[in-house]
Amino acid sequence: EVYFKNLSKQKQKEVMEKNGNNHKLRVCVATCNRADYSKLAPIMFGIKAEPQFFELDVVVLGSHLIDDYGNTYRMIEQDDFDIHTRLHTIVRGEDEAAMVESVGLALVKLPDVLNRLKPDIMIVHGDRFDALALATSAALMNIRILHIEGGEVSGTIDDSIRHAITKLAHYHVCCTRSAEQHLIAMCEDHDRILLAGCPSYDKLLSAKNKDYMSIISMWLGEDVKTRDYIVALQHPVTTDIKHSIKMFELTLDALISFNKRTLVLFPNVDAGDKEMVRVMRKKGIEHHPNFRAVKHVPFDQFIQLVAHAGCMIGNSSCGVREVGAFGTPVINLGTRQTGRETGENVLHVRDADTQDKILHALQLQFGKQYPCSKIYGDGNAVPRILKFLKSIDLKEPLQKKFCFPPVKDNISQDIDHILETQSALAVDLGGTNLRVAIVSMKGEIVKKYTQLNPKTYEDRLALILKMCVEAASEAVNVNCRILGVGISTGGRVNPREGIVLHSTKLIQEWSSVDLRTPISDALHLPVWVDNDGNCAALAERKFGHGKGIENFVTLITGTGIGGGIVHQHELIHGSSFCAAELGHIVVSLDGPECLCGSQGCIEAYASGIALQREAKKLHDDDLLLVEGMSVKEEEIVSAAHLIQAAKLGNTKAESILRTAGTALGLGVVNILHTVNPSLVILSGVLANHYVNAVKDVINRQALSSVKTVDVVVSNLADPALLGAASLVLDYTTRRIY
What residues does Zn(2+) bind to (predicted)? Predict the structure, then answer.
């Protein structure tokens, strides 16, 4: 350590000699808004504290100078910094064009300022459109740029702006090891990258134990206790303004319902911000007794407010970065921070499209206390940054160099790789057959393999692995890239763990079976597992009649009766993964015995097994066969014979099918009265035989408010395999709370 300290001092001495012993580094810090000032202020204090090395010029622009956003330039003056220049650069407007015009206005005004200041280096922070104007101006005027917080990943246009500034900047200060690796991957010179941590953490980690109760009382009221209030900070997403406004509206509705004192901060200056403010006013937030709506809170006080809050909610980077230092629970809404490194205190609600989702997240997070996270800093960023600034040699060539990785000769991209189809391996475990298929993103079954389902666990698992390995190998030959494995199986399944909890009697030795681990280990692919009824519903949601439908139910009519329920676009699993066991809805107290051990279940009337049982009874009593049909001596009587007899006029067979259809219809009526879907999809080999009977029962038995429900027959040829595939093909957008 002593050696490296001496080496550093020697290097700084050499740099001072090269730059001229009396030359101070003239640093221009440009700040655009309250958020970037919280990161830049600690650096500015550090620069100001070492006048023997630095001269500081402060340029203020952007939302700092707008009354609607609190005239936050005043906090810079309160921190005793001399503001050299104030530039009004924000063009008022409510769309993307206003941001472009603001960048253009800044580009027009900045050259004159930089010509007068003639800084040696400009410090630019983050990913705002104002910062892009600063970096562009400085780069074109041959001024060195130090970029703070480059290399990070988030959502929206911010990513593109941040990486564009990275390419313009000469020096980089990053906050995490991942960000450093991203900068290196972007061909930036490793010698010009400093992993320092976030400057705001220098202040955060020393901010505890101040008089926070007076701050809480000032902003939220004297009756508010610690951990019993919420801080909300949400900004528009400029790449999807309409959706972000709707999400903000749902957030406010959820906060009103949650009924806790809430501090709501106004959004950033972005396209859509005025509409968000209008939403606040339409809902009466500024006059609601539970809410305090403010344009700005000084950073020192804001730190105390989030440190002692019961929860923070919104899509601000502050929530996923700074708040982790205190272990405060955070609910991150939408995609604005997608890709950010976060601590365990952050709960993501990627698709915050309903009030219930946001309310459920509040119920899960509010009042918790998580371990403090130091992902973004250890409190020593500023000393590292100042040391880095002192090491800059102004006599080095200004033109930056990129460190491109070596490229081997004669390497070109193969057309087959370009044309590869993203696909899934789908596995369907039925009572008789075991099937594996390669399924494309569009739902095309590219290749299918079928084998008899073995009777023992060991043989079955070995066969699944063998068939999957063969299919994965074949995928290369048919230009398919396998993203993962989806498994559809009978029985009760824990999809979170990939475990079959209990099986149906049709599949033996299939309880408490971990399918995910051995298959994932063997294939080195992610694996998803779900019940076959749920998979049928997922198939309809992605490829069938359920596409775009918010609430629908799928009923499988085959060997057994199963199904799945999609409510608000999400599959319902239930607290013990037993939701949508639709075949075991009881429609008669003294009906026939079901395989589950109960009596009068739909499955005991309308399943293939039930129809086969009745067909055998008729055949044993010589009441099945009618003119035009026959059963060979070795042939097994099945449900198909019963259906054939009914079509040929056998009144007994017709009565049995009518009773089965009525039982299924009564079950559907119960479903309509329970979850009120807008669509019922009948799937499976018996669907066409039951659809009219189900409609008749709905017309006779259902409440008038649900009689308008659509009842349709699935048009999917293989819902089990397609559903298993959709588990994989949709995995990037799956939500778990």
Answer: 584, 594, 596, 601
